[in-house]
Amino acid sequence: MTIFSKIIAGEIPCYKIAENDKFFAFLDINPVNWGHTLVVPKQETDYIFDIDDEQLSEMIVFAKKVATAMKEAIPCRKIGVTVLGLEVPHAHIHLVPLQKEGDMDFKHKIDNPDPERMKEICEAISSKLKFEN
Ligand code: 5GP
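Above: inputs. Below: predicted complex with guanosine-5'-monophosphate.
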């Protein structure tokens, strides 16, 4: 079981943004910028391009809904999209609010982000979400 599966199962706490039957979104614990969100499939696959076409398409559509809510909740120019997967072997998409290119610098993360600010950001994004299910 990956650390992300434990988060999805509620065994490890997280700042949860959204969930449906197949996908889960939550704030990255060491954000590169405030609002940095991870989108994860509930089914464990390590490498994102090993996910079958239908599931991958649905994952992108889910990520789009989360990114739309992020853009409404957080002042930014765009929501940047990155896939790394070098640390956690459970496919995930990084969504990061961007004002400038340097806002997506994975060498400079926010260590020990203020829990109150994380909670506020989580609630602000969640409140903008529009899901049918
Ligand atoms: P990657 O696998 O894409 O290289 O990086 C994994 C990302 O997951 C990192 O940005 C890291 O901060 C985040 N991460 C790792 N463990 C946890 C965790 O337990 N909770 C949360 N919310 N994020 C995590």
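The mean pLDDT is 96.
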